[in-house]
Amino acid sequence: MNLSEKNNLALDTLKFPVNYDHRNQTIWDAKGMMVCDIRGWGKIQFMSKSEDRQDAIGELIANLLNKYHRNINAKIDEELFRMLAS
Question: d(Cα 50, Cα 79) in Å, to the nearest integer?
């Protein structure tokens, strides 16, 4: 599958909007399916404001997914998705 096909498959799996749950450090879709677990970020735990950093990353990922879904016909920024995937 190419990148576009993978993105479409992922988007077809989720029910939007997705939301970040600060308490459990997870991202959930609108139907209650867990999408992503944001815990276990090795080095972050040793940085200042580690909990705030993990929450900021969770919020960022949820916001990016929702923004992409709202702009489904827009061209995806492949560099951004490569960065998130690495």
Answer: 26
